[in-house]
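Summary of Year 1 activities. Much of the first year was spent building the evaluation harness for sequence design. The harness presents a backbone, in tokenized form, and records the residue chosen at every position. We chose the following record to illustrate the format because it has been used consistently in internal testing since the harness was completed.
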């Protein structure tokens, strides 16, 4: 009985900083850790736009002030990232969760340069800046964990997600490379490979309606393929989208496992396609299988 609460008094709290906490996985993880019954964590929940903090505040209403704080941080602004470090009372972060990210769907020709650049600024350079800022402290203390919200789309191409996948592939290369050297410093890097998540993602589908003005710039064949993709996407979300709670267990494992893995797969559903990509290095087999999976309404052989 007493042991259960020993953490509260005897053990130092693990300081966890999470980016992108205004919604989705970031919000969920901040709430989960801040509500820990043994109060083992001190959570710094960061977000770019503090006017979006109400939902998070509502969810953590009963949390102790010692376990939870919200900070403004824009991962695309290096000054903002450095200013955040200054505000951390403990002057150390044990676990850094790089979660801030943005998605982009649609035919490549429809994206403006600014839109594409923003995807890379947030997903890739935002992650790089955040890691850069917290790495010297972790190296000095010879301990730390870096957890990154990645995606199935970081490991394999998904039609009409070209730029998003490009940014997540880059994140994968960044983290896999870093992990090799960071072993020397007892710093563990973990990528959480999420599939579709049950958020209000599908409710926003109308924003990429094929009859949208932005799609008028593309040929009719692409438009009809995109319409087919959206239909497939709907089915995928209905059939395999995971609840945030289920996904958060993987984050907990990456935080708590004595020797965390480089990759955690939140779902096994895409594993046959992932393995096909890796085992047939020429790549055509994957391209064919993914095409069949998305555009012919039939599942891949491995999925049948
Ligand atoms: C995976 C397989 C597939 O055939 C279609 C889709 C569409 C939506 C994709 C998802 C997927 C994989 C995971 C994502 C998602 C959009 C955002 C998410 O990260 C790439």
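For this record, the design step produced the sequence shown next.
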């Amino acid at each position: 009985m007493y042991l259960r609460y020993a953490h509260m008094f005897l053990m130092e709290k693990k300081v966890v900083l999470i980016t992108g906490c205004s919604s989705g996985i970031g919000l969920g993880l901040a709430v989960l850790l801040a509500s820990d019954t043994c109060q083992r964590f001190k959570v710094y929940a960061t977000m770019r736009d503090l006017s979006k903090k109400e939902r998070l505040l509502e969810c953590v209403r009963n949390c102790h002030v010692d376990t939870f704080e919200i900070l403004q941080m824009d991962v695309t602004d290096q000054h903002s990232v450095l200013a955040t470090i200054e505000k951390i009372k403990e002057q150390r972060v044990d676990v850094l969760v790089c979660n801030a990210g943005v998605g982009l769907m649609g035919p490549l020709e429809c994206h403006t340069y600014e839109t594409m650049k923003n995807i890379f600024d947030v997903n890739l350079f935002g992650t790089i800046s955040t890691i850069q800022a917290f790495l010297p402290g972790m190296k000095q203390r010879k301990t730390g964990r870096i957890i990154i919200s990645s995606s199935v789309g970081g490991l394999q191409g998904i039609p009409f997600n070209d730029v998003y996948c490009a940014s997540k592939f880059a994140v994968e290369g960044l983290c896999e490379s870093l992990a090799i050297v960071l072993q020397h410093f007892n710093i563990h890097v973990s990528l959480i490979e999420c599939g579709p998540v049950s958020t209000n993602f599908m409710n926003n589908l109308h924003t990429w309606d094929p009859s949208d003005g932005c799609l008028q710039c593309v040929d009719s064949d692409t438009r009809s393929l995109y319409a087919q993709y959206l239909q497939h996407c709907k089915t995928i979300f209905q059939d395999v989208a995971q609840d945030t709670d289920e996904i958060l267990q993987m984050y907990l494992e990456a935080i708590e496992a004595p020797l965390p893995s480089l990759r955690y797969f939140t779902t096994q559903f895409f594993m046959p396609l992932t393995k096909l990509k890796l085992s047939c290095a020429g790549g055509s087999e994957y391209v064919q299988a993914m095409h069949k999976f998305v555009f012919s309404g039939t599942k891949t052989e491995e999925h049948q």
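The pocket of estradiol is lined by residues 103, 151-153, 158, 161, 194-196, 233, 236, 293-294 (CB under 6 Å). Quantitative recovery figures across the full test set are reported in Table 2.
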